[in-house]
Amino acid sequence: MAIAITTELLDGCVLSLLTHEDYYGYAITQRVQEFTPVSESTLYPVLRRLKKENWVTTYDQPYQGRNRRYYKITDDGKKRLTTIRSDWLDYKTTIDQVLGGVNDEK
């Protein structure tokens, strides 16, 4: 059974990918699907929201007679990713303590 991924973590996954290189939408979906089950119909609204928040920008490049829309992380997106990573570490530490029994009496 897979654990549901939250919106913030999905944002973090996409923004993190974009710190390495620019990707077009379908390629982002393929990369994210390597780590978590997410559909294209879920991811494209995420991309639109990230753009609306100015965490990514887009540009088009021709490819085999068509245009591909590429996504590029912005400085604001990098700041947002830093916040998401910090929130994740706090959350992960808490869950590790609960599930790992760190606070259990011996």
From TrEMBL:
Pfam families: PadR. Coiled coil: none annotated. Residues 14-82 form the Transcription regulator PadR N-terminal domain. Gene3D superfamilies: Winged helix-like DNA-binding domain superfamily/Winged helix DNA-binding domain (1.10.10.10). This is PadR family transcriptional regulator, regulatory protein PadR. It comes from Paucilactobacillus suebicus DSM 5007 = KCTC 3549. The lineage of its organism: Bacteria, Bacillati, Bacillota, Bacilli, Lactobacillales.
